[in-house]
Each structure stands twice: as C-alpha cells, then as structure tokens.
Batch of 2 targets.
Target 1
Amino acid sequence: MGGMAVKKVGRGTYKQQISDDLRQQIADGTLAPGAKLPTEAQLTDEYGVTRGTVRAALDILVNEGLIVSKRPVGYFVRERKPMVFRPQAEFRPRPYTPEMDAFMTEHQGRDPEQTIEVSIAEPTAEVAKRLQLKAGQLVVARRRVRYLDGEPFNINDSFFPLDLVRDTPIMRPESIAEGANEVLASLGYRQVRAIDELYVRMPTPDEVRRLELAPGTPIGYHVCTGYTEEGKPVRVAITVLPGDRHVISYERRRETPADES
Amino acid sequence: MGGMAVKKVGRGTYKQQISDDLRQQIADGTLAPGAKLPTEAQLTDEYGVTRGTVRAALDILVNEGLIVSKRPVGYFVRERKPMVFRPQAEFRPRPYTPEMDAFMTEHQGRDPEQTIEVSIAEPTAEVAKRLQLKAGQLVVARRRVRYLDGEPFNINDSFFPLDLVRDTPIMRPESIAEGANEVLASLGYRQVRAIDELYVRMPTPDEVRRLELAPGTPIGYHVCTGYTEEGKPVRVAITVLPGDRHVISYERRRETPADES
DNA sequence: TAGTGGTCTAGACCACGCC
DNA sequence: GCGTGGTCTAGACCACTAC
C-alpha cells in the first residue's frame, strides 16, 4: 500500500515475502539460533502491513519448526540439539549388565529418568493386528516417558499379550533389571526376529502433551514387533521420537550400499 | 456470543474446540478419508463464530496433516497410502541385475520414472564434512526426483568428490545401468561400510516445491555416507522421504530386540 | 503498569474452478 | 456468474510476565 520506509522484499503475498525474508535471515545467520526476533509491532512497522499479516508470516515459520513463541516475551530462533538414537544399540548382548542399557549409555553425563505406568487394556487395532490377537484378548501396556535433564525425550510404550505375562515383573510399574525381553525369554518366549516400521508424521495432541512438543515438531513413530522362533509375536514396542531431539543413526558393513541406479 | 442453534463442544478456545471436534470426527470415521468437510461458511454458522476463527481451527488440522484444502472446492480428509521403503533393500547382491533395482522392484505394477540432473558444485557444509573435503574441493552432484504414477515420490541426491569420478558415467545425466557404486568400485573405491543418519523435520520450501508436498507433511531426511576399506568416504547419498508417502521398514534377526529395561 | 503475544470480530477484495 | 477458499485490513480485549 502507500507505505513510507517500508521494507521491500521478494514476490508473492505479503506473508510469503515476510516469511521468506525472515527465513533467509535465519539461514544466513543474521538471526542466529536462540536470537530474539523483532516484535510483531516492529515487524508491522517494518513491512508496512497489519499485525494479522505479520502473524500469518510468523505462523509459517512456527509451523516449519524454525521459530518458537515464548509468550509474552517474543519469538526466538529455534535451537536444535538432537541426541543420537541408535537402533542397533537396542540390540544388547547377553548376559545383560545394567551398564549396557541403551538409554543410559547413550547419554552419559546427562541425567536420565523415566516414568512407568502399567495397565491392562484393550489393544488398539494397530497393536492387536501385530500381536495377532483375537477379539476380546487383552494386553499389558507398559507406558514410559523418558526424560533427559528433566526434559521429555521420548515415549516408549510396550504391549504384551496378557496371557503371557500375567503375574510377572512385566506387570510391575518399575524398571526391570534384566529387561522385559529376558523375562519373556525365561517364560519360553525368546525373540529371535523383529520387524521394524518407521513412520514420519505430525504428532497427535496427546503426544504434544506428553512430550511437551513445540508447534512444528514432527515425530518419528517407530513400531517394533518381536517374534519367537516359532513365529509367534510376543511384544510390540512403540517409540515416539521428537524430530527436534533425535537423530536416528546406524551403521552397515560388508555390503555395497546401493541407493543408486 | 449470543448464538442460536450453535454447536457446543469441549473446553478451551473456540478454535481449539472446533478443531478438536473435527479431529474427533476424523478419528471415529464420521469424516472418512477423502470425505469433504463442511465449507467455511457452514462451519461459521454451525459453531457461531466468525470465519477467521473457523479458518484458524482448520489451519490447525492442516498443519497436523489431517486435512487438505483443494481450492476452490473445499477441505478434504487426507488419505494416506504410504509406500514401503526398505533400507536393507538398498543392499543389493552382486552381480547386479537391473531387475534387482530397489526402486523398481519395490513398486511393481506401478509406473516408476525419475529425473536426473548432474552438476559440478561446491559442496554444502553438510556434504563437505561427511566427504572430508578440503576448502575449494568440488563435488559431482547427481540430483534425482523419483516419480510413481506421475507423482513425486522421493528425492535422491548423491554427491561424489570430483577428483574421483571425473569423466565417468557418474557425470552423465542418465541412469547408470550397473549402478554408481559399481562404477566407484571399478575405479578402486569399493564401499564396504556405510553410516546412516535419519532426521525427522519439516521440509524446506525447496523440498515442498520439488516433492509437491501438502502443508503439514513432515519428511524423513536420510543421509548415507559410504566408505572404502581404507575408511575413505567416497559418496554421500541424501534421500528425502515425504512422511505421507513412506513407511520405512526393516527386519532384524538372531538377536534379542531390547528397547526395554 | 507497560508491553508482549493470543484470540476474536467484522468486513472487504481477490483468484480460481465449475456451471 | 456463483461459490469456494486465500489474503488482508482495522480494531478490540485478554493473559501473562517482567519491571
């Protein structure tokens, strides 16, 4: 419109121009991680648009996961400090020693904790299908939220057929020293095979709440189904990994990586 | 406000109530995948708020990836039909046969295509670090977009040190029958080890454009670095996997899956 | 108390696809 | 032409936090 000292930038709608401009400033370091953005009022003046338009531009960046709003202080460039999540570290040699625990050892020097809730529940369709349960069969759900330095780090929910684990340590809401898989093995259900699925999606409101996720944070949804020698599924573990706190890393050997043609 | 036949729902702000209500209808099947939502005008009447508030509620669902807007027709419940992406399928046995190509074989019955662009470029910091390049060293970039039934399916960009692949088939913008890794191997750079990293994040505007992503679609960002026997990195492959088109699936054997304690 | 972002209203004009 | 969603304006009130 009839602006005066109004900042002129690229093409497209106003909100696109503004978000593109700010995104560029974030990319080139003009706005460094952790830096505070101008206030909505300042941006309103700077670009010569109304506050609603400025907010629309900022919403774009919020939903891209680039900035966060810390009300009523202002908007800040988001800082990422992902932890490494190693699927192969989830394979631990026997005999088990507590020092080998994947969760504890991956993050030495920080302060790991976890909450555990155990319940008997009807399985979701997703779990029932993978455990090959018949209608009416119940499962034991061990729901955990793992924390690092007091911040939620990931969700790890495991499900077992109730018939298999009734009156075992798996049903107690506390850490299992030898690991739930050893308990299953001692019951005659040693797992020799696992199928992993990894989905990438936006979190549900429930996941946002449990993991205290900022808007614009996608998640990795990792479903691991464990089978016995006989092919019986005995355990489904679902891990929810916030995209801003994880890198999933693994190593392969001896064969030629393809990915090419 | 002083509404009349206004739909009353839960707690929170109006936009939260409205988006919660619609999300529930999507979850319980009242609004099935592919179904058309009421128009903004209808929702405005139904909930007794202004159009701006209705749009704020719909924006929440769009950014959760639950609905898409098909202008100027209306909003629709999003349908997901993910393809399976198997990292282990990326290991192919030698001798290579075209029928084994991971991309082709995983999707039989559909119509795969790809575009290839090859350029000599300065590496990004990300690539330079993984290839252990010195300042000024250039790379060959092979950028591909893979399509299935005419729809973009994923991005696969590979980077090679220019010194290694000058005047080889890798520099031609066309399919390499035997695979780029075989070319590298024949040059004396057979890869025996790979390190994989998988990040989960929202796409950049460039990725949105190349993959024609709907808003609210997160991506998996897969970086694979291949090393020779001597530990020299010779190739970085970056695959961008739209969350709405992929399930990453793999299988493990012989060891006990942990994920438990 | 001042200033921040969060929410909501009321109204306007536009581009696009369909009829 | 009509109805759809996309954009933008102008103004209001609120909750929260730092001062």
Target 2
Amino acid sequence: MGRSPCCAKEGLNRGAWTATEDKILTEYIKVHGEGKWRNLPKKAGLKRCGKSCRLRWLNYLRPDIKRGNITHDEEELIIRLHKLLGNRWSLIAGRLPGRTDNEIKNYWNTNIGKKISSTPNHRPRIQSEERPNSTSISPRPSLNNGPPPVLHAKPSRCTKVFIATEPPKVDQVIETRPVSLGPSTVQGLAMAHDQKAEEPDSSPAIGSGNENDSNPSDFMIDFEMDANFLSEFLNSDFSQLCDFHDGVEADSNTNNTSSTSQHSSPNATEAPLLMNEEETLQNSNLFSLDSFLDCEMDWFC
DNA sequence: AATAGAATCAACCGCCCGTGG
DNA sequence: ACCACGGGCGGTTGATTCTAT
C-alpha cells in the first residue's frame, strides 16, 4: 500500500484471518476480556498485530454482531444519521445495535453513497483535509440550496452562541462563558427553539424548513459539541425533550424515563417531538428515532 | 466457458486523543 | 508541563466475488 508500517511486523501474519486464529482470539477474550490489545497477541499466541486483533474482534468475532443485509429501516436511519453526523461511522454504528462502524462505512460507500451521488442535489463527500478542525454548525446557506450542513460532533465545549432573528449585528453576538453541553443545555436550546417558533412576529422558526427561510444568519450556533454530549443527547434525553415539547416541563422527580405513558401527548393528534428510545428498541422500530431525527436535524441546522 | 470490469468488504493504515506516570 | 502508551477513528487498499460480454 505504499505506507510504512505503524509498528514492527516482522514475523506477523497479515491478511485474512484463519478459523484457527479466530478461535484462539475468541477463546482468549472469553477468558481475559477485551483490552490490552498490544499485549494480547503475545499472550494469546497469535502472530498478529494488536490492532489487527482488536479490529477482528470488534468487526467480526464479537458475539453481538448482527449478520445479514442492512434492512431498509436501517438504511434510512443511516442516511439520516449521516446527514446529522457526517462520516462519524462509530457514532452512527452506535445507534444501530449489532452493526459495526466498518460495516456501515462500507455500506455507505458501496450503496448509499452511490445513490445519493446520483441524485442532483447530492453533496460531495467531505475530504479529510477539508474537514474543519473544530466543530461548528455552519449557517444554512439556503434551504433550497442543497442539503443541510453536517454537524461534526468532535470537540468538547460551548464557546459561542449566536442567535439572531435579523441579519447579524455586532451587538447580537452573544459571547458566553464556555459551558458544558448537557441535557439542560439541550433543553434550553430546545426552549429557545420553541419560543422562537411560537413568536408570531419572528422570522421563520429555527430550521423550520420554511422555504422562505433564506436568511442564513437566523440561527447560528458556533459551539463545540463532543461525542459524549451527542451520545447523551441521543441516548437519554428523549423523554425530557419529549415532555418539554409537549409544554410540560420534564418532571425532575420522574426517574422513570421508561414510563412511556408520560410521553404521550395530551393531544392525540399532536405527535411528540421525540419518542422514548426504549420504545424504539423494544419494538425494534427504528422509525421513532427517524422521526426524532426528522425534527432535530432541522432544528440543528 | 473464458475473460474483463465492477462491486463488495475485511483488513490495514496513519493520525489523533485520553490517560497515567 | 511533558512524554509515552493504549486505544479508537475515518480513510484507503486489495483480495475475492459477482456480473456482463
């Protein structure tokens, strides 16, 4: 491949794993558990690089790996998550139980990527050198002007928030102290979102998908968001956001986030913004998360 | 049946980050 | 503050399989 090896590989096996190697690795991890990959090959008696062992285990030998083709639901979810996260395959894989980042990455490159690139409004893949070093949510150029920007959830703290309903003025730039982004922050942003949406005289709601929303400065957040936050956000706060969206402050006393009845809207016709993810998993129904992403991607953008 | 080209996917790569000394 | 190390990540490669001619 033209690259210098990352570590000494003299005498190490390369290429496809044999059944024997798989068995040795599996047995070793069963007994000793994961981790210490660098020492693992020596201890297990494998002539493999530690990284190779880790990859083989994570992508192929792990017992919870889901085999078989990507389902239609999974594909839709991948597309939506990719819109939201970009090429953060591990994060995307984290939302698809049993699927690995490598599998999703391959699937994207061989299937979805082609589908999308064959459509007129496709966005070219972001090359590594083009990727921003810090997280930012770029202002949406125009809702009619191609897909929304990708949110790169890499860095770790909020440094600046800028929300404006008019074209930007200097004094509308709100410099904030760095804050950790957590559930309350999400809720706060959601609150800002909803309040803004409810103001009759305000410009179109944040990410409302309004076709007239040509002002890219309407909602700009320049903050850094780490994977933990996103994971927290995607994992555990659906109920809060859901309650909040229903106009009911999430009851801090209700530790029963699994209580799905709390999330039902009083108005049966008003679907909650978010569904409880437990419901999603229990029902193996990915559409709940889909609906969440439908709403939240617009909101993010 | 043979061959070339396309498609697929496991494996490898370098880079980066978090952690502990 | 600095450094070394382990581990994780996304990008890329190449062997294998599939399909068209």
